[in-house]
Amino acid sequence: MATDTDTYQRILIAAESVVLAQGVAALTFDKVAKAADVSRGGVLYHFKSKQALVEAMVERFVSGFETAIDDLVAKDPEPIGRFSRAYIRASFEPVVPGDLDRLGSCIIAALNNEPDQLEPLRAQHRRWQKKIEDDGLDPVTATIIRHAVDGLWLGEAFTTNKLAAGMRAKVIARLLDMCAAPAKQARSA
Questions:
Q1: pLDDT tens per residue across span 73-128
Q2: DSSP for 14-77, written as a single string
């Protein structure tokens, strides 16, 4: 039998599928209920408003990305630049399950009209910035890397500035190289 937690997650996944298939404007409790195979009342039991549903979607998006970063940090033996490399990889490599990039762009686009709902994402970005600055690299260089990553991700997510595959791979490789310990950077120059 499904638990409340299972139903809650199923509703969130259904909401994501509605957004991905039909856009944020199509996000209604009726469509989410149908996609989740629950009643409209079941959706309302877990989410008192569309705003609460969108907030939970943002939280799930941020949590998935954060988990991907943490997993990559744990696998990286080189401490200097470790978080920055994980941030790059989590942004571009298929380490996050599902269609999280497209979902993230849909959610961000929707929340652009309701900036207060972006606060959890803003708060997470402040935490990531702190980790970037404390990553053992020059904080300015690390910040430039992060903003380059964010810009490339947004360009791809919104399909406004998609690089050719070869150039994309070279840019990502260069960003990863920039995260190497200073002694390793000098040797590779």
A1: 999 999 999 999 999 999 887 655 555 555 665 666 566 666 777 777 788 889 99
A2: HHHHHHHHH-GGG--HHHHHHHHTS-HHHHHHH-SSHHHHHHHHHHHHHHHHHHHHHHHHHH--
